[in-house]
Amino acid sequence: MENSKFINDNFINYVSKVSPRTNEVRTLFRAFWVGGLICCLGQSFRMLFENVFSLSDDVLAAYVSMVMIFLGGLLTAFGVYDRIGKYAGAGSIVPITGFANSVVSPAIEFKTEGYIYGLASKMFVIAGPIIVFGISSSVLVGLIYYFIYNVL
Amino acid sequence: MIIDYFMFLKVFIVGGLICTLAQVLINYTKITSGKILVIFLLLGVFFGAIGLYEPLVKFAGAGATIPISGFGFLLADGARKGAKESLFGALTGGIKSAGIGITAAIVFGFIFALLSKARSKRN
User: Fold this and answer.
1) Cβ A108–B106 below 8 Å, yes or no?
2) Single pTM value for the model
3) Where are the domains of chain A?
4) Tens of pLDDT, residues A56-103
5) Are A129 and B116 within 8 A, CB to CB?
């Protein structure tokens, strides 16, 4: 028994010595600049639409997120976004393009399992929780404010 | 066309910092990326609901709206505006303003998935 304990400890030491250390400062830096750059891309679309189509603020934001979702989906379909994700981590997950990636990526991956139970249902593996929590919490916010505005 | 370069700096820093915060959570806790998205969405809903996210959107534009927390802000903001009008507005306001994002993701996602060859995720 003591011997196996000794081997276990040795093994754990060995693994922690050999396994690649993720350089944490480096991942933070990568997430920062890629995430910032994606937001800047969104901002340039925003300025472009503002100048060319002269839209109101709300419509502007809607069009920008639509274009960004389109781009995120397109890059996922070409297999580029997953590579960006490997480099940037959260820098590619948190922007809205990452939301598009989380929809398109499993849809492509599970296409072989059919169009209904594969593609269409697996689309929502990650996006589903976002929609569930998003809509539920927005209804909660709406009800609270309705109470504040109309009852109090 | 006048380009506000200082605005881009603000967008870059705020957007980058939101992503860095998510990366900190990934590095130092064992939270998976799916949970990160839900957490940041709910943070956006929360700060949108108490009115703290809107100043950030005014300050940093796309730096605050492009991260998933901006999507949460849209949901909360829509619900708040709808609640001013009616109970029906309170219930539908969130999805009304966030509907375009969900629609775009589903429709584009569907089209792209139909057009591309099935393959497993690259690792």
Assistant:
1) no
2) 0.87
3) 22-109
4) 877 888 889 999 999 999 999 999 999 999 999 999 999 999 999 999
5) no
